[in-house]
Amino acid sequence: MSGKRSNRPFAWMLFGTGGFIVAFFLPIQILLYGFAIPLGWVPNPGYDGTLALLRSPLERLYLAVLVIFSFWHAGYRIRDTVADAFSMRAVDVVLAAICYGGAIVGTIATIALLWNVP
To answer: In the prediction, which pLDDT does 7 show?
Structure first.
């Protein structure tokens, strides 16, 4: 049994992890920074307070995981949706390169931006 091995399980792992993280932690971020702070439900930390929070390695790690796995989840979701909705399975390799390439660029940009926080 010498068949071609698929890299699909690795993509599924990134998709599943990203889906979990997006479902559980992104709503908290949206609630805090999109509603609670602007409506005055919690005190506004201001620019300096947010910057001080971003200097924490644990906060940087949290944001990196949240954003990076969101990119990978979106890449997989967009790839499958476009391929199925528009019957484009014939160009699946091109779709994968575009979607996962975008996730790679987003990952590198996230790491670079979080690394360079003053």
So the answer is: 67
Q: How far apart are CA 7 and CA 58, in angstroms?
A: 31
**Treating both helix axes as pointing N-terminal to C-terminal, what angle do 46-54 and 57-85 enclose, rounded to 10 degrees?**
90
Per-residue pLDDT tens over the stretch 23-34: 999 999 999 989
The Cα 57–Cα 16 span in angstroms is: 25
Q: Is 1.10.3720.10 the CATH classification of the domain at 9-115? A: no
**How confident is the model over 50-96, as pLDDT tens digits?**
899 899 999 999 999 999 999 999 998 998 888 888 887 788 889 88
**b/e code 56-68 from CB counts within 10 Å (16+ = b):** eeeebeebbebbb
**Cα–Cα nearest to 100, from 17, 14, 25:** 14
DSSP-derived letter for residue 31 is: I
C-alpha of 77 from chain center:
12
* Cβ atoms of 15 and 73 closer than 8 Å: yes
